[in-house]
Every structure is written in structure tokens, then in C-alpha cells.
Amino acid sequence: MLEISKLVKRYGRDEPVLKELDLVVEGNSVVSIVGASGAGKSTMLRCINRLVEPTSGSIKLNGQELVNLRGAALRRARRKIGMVFQGFNLIDRLTVMENVLAGRLGYVSLYQAISRRYPQADIERAFTLMERVGIAHYANKRADALSGGERQRVGVVRALMQEPEVLLADEPTASLDPRTSEQIMKLLQSLASELSLPVLINIHNVAQAKAYTERIVGLRHGKMIFDGTPADFTREALDAIYGGIEAPDEDEGEDTKKPALATRKEVTDDPL
Prior knowledge:
This protein is of the alpha/beta class. It folds into two domains: 1-80 and 166-173 and 184-272, Rossmann fold, CATH 3.40.50.300; 86-163, no CATH class. It has helices spanning 41-48, 71-78, 96-101, 110-115, 120-133, 148-160, 178-195, 206-212, 235-242, 264-268, and strands spanning 2-9, 18-25, 30-34, 56-61, 64-65, 81-84, 166-170, 199-202, 215-220, 223-228. The strands form two sheets. Strands 6-7-8-3-9-10 form a six-stranded mixed sheet, with helices on both faces. A four-stranded antiparallel sheet has the order 2-1-4-5, covered by helices on one side. The two termini are 32 Å apart. Residues 251-272 have low confidence and may be disordered.
């Protein structure tokens, strides 16, 4: 369970980017965070994994307070927090397998990391996860030879290699075409269910948030102003979050109307 209480982030003397946010995510919930640029979506995710230091408040993961951790204790806690990035954050000159195994860096010695001598159990788990998301045949291919969707799947597997207790995805589809974006959203949705893993997705595409997540949290100017199901996400809620301006992909056409749940077969049989 992820518990955020009274979370504040302020830079210098400026107005806080986050203003006493409260959020609880448990089980295998898939939660989307929506809001205009500057609403605080990415800052919130980065406070959770301490890439950004909270100014005040509490962040607990399965009962452990994260805000006050330092040094080795912080490194151990970060192993439990998987992160999927918009820009993939892969090392292009390394192979897919080497990038995936980077998810185990927090668990191996410095010598093993430098020499890339990972335990056989880690290698076997990497193959299992890569097969699950359809990229095992790229294991020895350089990361820079992959398409955007394939690169993002590598990023997802790398995060899962940490054996995380929560998975954060910061605009995971922003760099992808519409069809590939939906495949990645289906993948995150199904993995949350299979692994009983809570997933928080910072996303601009409102239609995808409504189609592929079971809960939507809306931020505006650092405050949470909506927390409910896609069915509760009315035009009034949309206007409140975006201030009456047109939200990204707010109108769902035929190509964006997807079932609320995607099957494992849909994900694995629909190649990028």
C-alpha cells in the first residue's frame, strides 16, 4: 500500500508545486494522474521515489516512511519502487538484456555490476519477463535498434526486475504513436493484475486514462480536485481540472474506445 499524506513540495520561496496532497493506493489498483502541464503530476511521482525531495508531509510504502530515509536505507527503499520513464532512459549501446538486468543493480555487488556477472536466477527472470512482454527475441540486440514501443517495453521489464512494491510511470506513452500507446497502457493494466502491483501513471491523454485505468486523480495547481472512477469523470470534472481549456484527447473516437480491462492474450498477441 502506498500512503501519501499532506505532501508539500516547494522550490525556494515560490508557491508550492504540491499543496498538502493526500492519496492512498493499494492492491493492484491502476491509478492515472491527470492535469494540465505544471499541475504537479511528475513532481508527485518523483517525490515518491525521492528523485525530488519533498518539502514536508509523509510518504509510506507498505508501512515504511520514505521521506526521512538517507544513504543505504534510501537505496534499499528505492529498490521497491519501479519507474518507467517517458524518454525510456535506456543505455543505447547496451543490449536489451543488459538494460533489463540494470534493474538488479540495487541487489548485486559493485564487482558484479561492473563485470555484468549477474546471478543465473536474475538472467532467468529477465528472460521470463521479456517473453511475457514480447521482446525476448531482442535479448542480444542493441537498445538503439528498437522502435519506441519496444524500447518502452524494455523499460517496463527493467522496472519489474527490481521486484517493486509499486510501479510509477511518468508519461509512458507520450513519445509513442496512438496505437503503440494503447498497447503499452494495456500492458501496464494487465501486469498490475497479474503481479498484484499498484501502478500510478502520470498521463496527458484523458481518453486513455478513462479506458485503461480504474481510478483517476485530477490535479490543478498542485491540489487534488478529483478522485474517482472513469464513470465519475464527467465534463464538469474535466473542466475543473483543465480550467475549461480543451484537455488532450478528451473526445473518445472509435479508435480510443477500449474495454476497461484488457486480456493477457490481447497484450501478448498484438505486436508493436
